[in-house]
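Narrative of activities, Objective 1.

The group set out to show that a structural description can be obtained from nothing but a protein's sequence at a throughput compatible with the screening campaign. Below is one input-output pair from the validation batch, recorded exactly as produced.
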Amino acid sequence: MDKIQKLFGAAVRRRREAKGLSQEGFADAAGIHRTYVSSIELGKVQVGIGVAHKLAQALGAPLSAIWREVEEKLGEGGGQADTP
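Output recorded for this entry:
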């Protein structure tokens, strides 16, 4: 599994739990299936930008804030995102 996928999923999970949302309620709000939310939170799937936007909207947060959290965690671990 890719480190960025894991970090993104963990950021989504932290925000979802902080809002007191179940996976099912969150999935409904985002318009995706609950099992997909589980896979995202576990870092098992690569999320497209459209789905990432839906997740951010359901969390009531800008996607940039979630991504910033991922980048901060990457910096803490000394890892770097792949750059073109």
